[in-house]
Write a structure and sequence with these properties.
With 687 residues, this protein is α+β, with helices and mostly antiparallel strands. The chain folds into four domains: 328 residues, Glycosidases (TIM Barrel), CATH 3.20.20.80; 80 residues, Immunoglobulin-like (Sandwich), CATH 2.60.40.1180; 75 residues, Immunoglobulin-like; 138 residues, Sandwich (Jelly Rolls). 18% of the residues lie in helices and 29% in strands. It is built from eleven helices and 36 strands. The chain is globular and about 80 Å long. Bound molecules: ligand H79. The site of ligand H79 has 9 residues, from loops.
Length: 687
């Protein structure tokens, strides 16, 4: 199959004739080249996503159900011919490209990513290779052309979102599972790729210099890494400096949106509706998020994030070194929802004063700060720390923990006169004396200039296989830098220079509070960390002679949002199971399974259980509810640690599945070992 693609790509390139750089391998790029290509994007930090298309006509509602949006053709299972009728209804007479671009610009956004085509296949521009485009609507104007003109005028970088998945084109495969009458006979996926490239060529040659091509819908099994690499090369051959997201290819990890580092993952990762818990050093990423709960316009969705939440997210993302792509879903009249307009205006007011603390900044040098976030900028001989204070300290003292660097000066970013704040060093910490009231109710930024690169001493990490143990446990203490020594105590007192110096893992045989801190040249340089390790008595096991191998199960059918109370219910089926295949492999929806029996422990010890399920589940061991993982959710995991003695312990796993995927698994590990599936031999039942 592959040679065919290469040939057809070459054919297109040759026929293009306008000198695309067909001999350059854009996957082989030096770090310096990539840095220079990414420069504007890393500086920008904040962009506007726009989801606009035919789906704004139904505005989220279909046959009385109101929870749809840009996926409406799929979620409401609308036949193609019926969906096509939105073409004659799309007439956004109030659309004004300049208004949109100015709203983005006034909010402090530096780029706009708009849907040139979403999954429904509709082209929001004048596409000569498709009839299913904006020129076929009564509107009949090329909205993207107007936006590109407005963006150029206002200095905003225009970018396009283009879906690989296409529910409209006859050559795209697969069909939706519910599309019984749309035949896939004669469909040719390679022909679809050529069509998509044709559209991309229009977008890349007729709308001026673009910032980003933002692909999506890459997860269906017809798309491959080879196609992804080829598409990446194709797009860059037409605009060599363009930036392309990781969804151009396969290998993205779910909604976390990042591609494993060994595989080709485009130019940046795309967490969707989430912010990574920690920064990702050396990786470019952008969190995209809705303002309410839908991407496309939904007239019933009033669940808008507050300006406060949005601004906190912006600072949080910047403090982790990422970009924020905030979505707007305009109406079919071509206007932004009023709630979005209001928030953009308020964001803009904050950005006008504080934008300096966002644009071109780098991730925080601190692991965490109790009062807010930090971003930083490298000056020639110094570093400028931007302290984003969400919670203004009532005692007017802002503590910067474990900052070893020599401070130069501090002032409020909102203070035009830059009046200096008093800086006091107390041991490991620096304190800034703040005025009584916060200059901003949401996020007040304090500038702190320090000499050189930041020297930050995080409190050490105190670890052991588990927080409980039965006999003895081994404790390890670690830290994030190599300049200091760790000193620790085992008697609940704060560590001082004379406390024992940590030289390696040590053993505990009794319940102990461990405290540790970092010291340098006789002085504490970090905050102290505390951890408690508790010695427990293992729950004794029982000996029962008449047990048999396996677990008893009862299978029920019913529509639940939580694990039901099975008492008094009649099972549809009962039997003996050796594992959880039944819960995993069932093609049904709306059912529940209750497994009951015993867990045989062959050796006293501390065991950690990991219960994963989609949807909810409960794990009982012995007399107690060990893990509550109930409710409607995707495949996620919860853990619990228990001390169990040799012998049999009653065991019960209750599970329910409503809709979507179904899965259930129970792993365990003995203290200090790796998680494994609980072996079948450990399950017994009694009847
Ligand atoms: O355009 C907006 C949405 O319409 C689109 N992306 C944003 C920017 C979107 N498409 N799908 N989804 C959002 C949710 C889809 C999630 C899944 Fe998957 C697709 C679950 C399984 C396949 C992504 C890929 C998560 C796991 C694999």
């Amino acid at each position: 199959m592959k040679p065919v693609i290469i040939l057809s790509t070459l054919a297109l390139l040759v026929s293009a004739g306008c000198g695309p750089k067909k001999n350059v391998d854009f996957l082989k790029e030096t770090e310096v080249q990539k840095d220079s290509r990414m420069e504007w994007w890393r500086e920008a930090r904040f962009g506007m996503f726009i989801h606009w298309g035919l789906y704004s006509v139904p505005a989220g509602e279909w046959n009385g159900s109101k929870n749809h949006a840009e996926w409406i053709r799929e979620t409401a299972q609308i036949p193609l011919e019926e969906y096509d009728q939105f073409v004659s209804q799309f007439n956004p007479v109030k659309f004004n490209a300049m208004d949109w671009v100015r709203m983005a610009k006034d909010a402090g956004m530096k780029y706009i990513v708009i849907t040139s085509k979403h999954h429904d296949g509709f082209a929001l521009y004048n596409s000569r290779v498709s009839e299913f485009d904006i020129m076929a609507t009564p509107f009949g104007r090329d909205a993207l052309k107007e936006l590109s003109t407005a963006c150029k005028k206002e200095g905003i970088t225009l970018c396009f979102y283009h879906s690989i998945m296409d529910w409209h084109h006859p050559d795209y495969l697969p069909r939706r599972s519910w599309e019984k009458t749309r035949t896939s006979e004669g469909a040719d996926f390679n022909r679809y790729i050529n069509y998509m490239k044709g559209q991309l060529k229009e977008l890349l040659t007729r709308y001026g210099k673009l910032g980003v091509l933002w692909f999506d819908g890459e997860w269906e099994n017809t798309w491959t890494e080879e196609y992804g690499k080829d598409l990446y090369q194709y797009v860059r051959s037409l605009q060599p400096d363009i930036i392309i997201n990781n969804r151009v290819t396969t290998g993205r990890s779910g909604m976390a949106g990042l591609t494993e580092s060994e595989t080709f993952g485009g130019d940046f990762g795309t967490p969707e509706q989430e912010i990574p818990a920690m920064g990702l050093p050396g990786i470019d990423w952008e969190s995209c998020m809705t303002m309410n709960d839908h991407w496309g316009y939904n007239k019933a969705d009033k669940n808008f994030k507050s300006t406060r939440e949005i601004l906190h997210m912006l600072a949080d993302i910047a403090s982790k070194g990422g970009n924020y792509l905030l979505n707007i879903g305009p109406t079919s009249e071509g206007v932004f929802p009023q709630e979005s307009i209001d928030r953009l205006r308020e964001i803009g007011i904050w950005m006008k004063t504080n934008g300096e603390s966002i644009y071109g900044t780098q991730a925080s040098p601190f692991r965490s700060l109790s009062w807010g976030r930090c971003t930083q900028k490298n000056m020639t001989e110094s570093t400028r720390l931007y302290l984003h204070v969400f919670d203004w300290p009532v005692d007017q003292k802002l503590m910067i923990p474990g900052l070893g660097s020599k401070p130069i000066r501090a002032y409020l970013l909102a203070d035009a006169s830059q009046e200096e704040l008093t800086i006091v060093r107390e041991g490991a910490n620096i304190f800034l004396n703040l005025p009584a009231s916060a200059p901003d109710a949401v996020n007040s930024v304090v500038v702190l200039d320090i000499q050189g690169k930041p020297e930050v001493y995080d409190a050490p990490t105190i670890g052991a296989p588990a927080a409980i143990f039965t006999d003895k446990t081994e404790v390890t203490i670690s830290k994030n830098e190599t300049l200091s020594d760790i000193h620790y105590t085992l008697d609940g007192s704060e560590p001082v220079m004379d406390s024992p110096k940590y030289t390696g893992p040590f053993s505990l045989a009794e319940t102990t509070t461990v405290q540790a801190a970092c010291f340098r040249e006789g002085q504490p340089v970090s905050a102290a960390q505390t951890a408690v390790f508790t010695r427990v008595v293992a729950e004794p096991g029982r000996v029962l002679s008449q047990v048999k191998p396996g677990l008893l199960y009862n299978l029920y059918s019913g529509d639940w949002d939580t694990v039901p109370d099975f008492n008094g219910m009649t099972p549809k089926m009962t039997g003996i199971a050796t594992d959880f295949t039944l819960a995993n492999q069932s093609k049904d929806e709306k059912f529940a399974i209750d497994y009951q029996g015993f867990l045989n422990i062959t050796e006293d010890g501390v065991y950690t259980f990991a219960l994963s399920s989609d949807d909810g589940s409960l794990l009982y061991v012995g007399s107690s509810l060990a893990i509550n993982h109930d409710g409607l959710h995707g495949a996620t995991t919860r853990e619990a640690t228990l001390a169990l003695g040799k012998g049999l312990h009653t065991l019960r796993i209750s599970f329910f599945e409503k809709t979507g995927g179904n899965s259930l698994s129970l792993l365990w590990k003995k203290s200090g070992q790796e998680f494994v599936a609980i072996p079948t031999e450990a399950f017994y039942y009694y009847r």
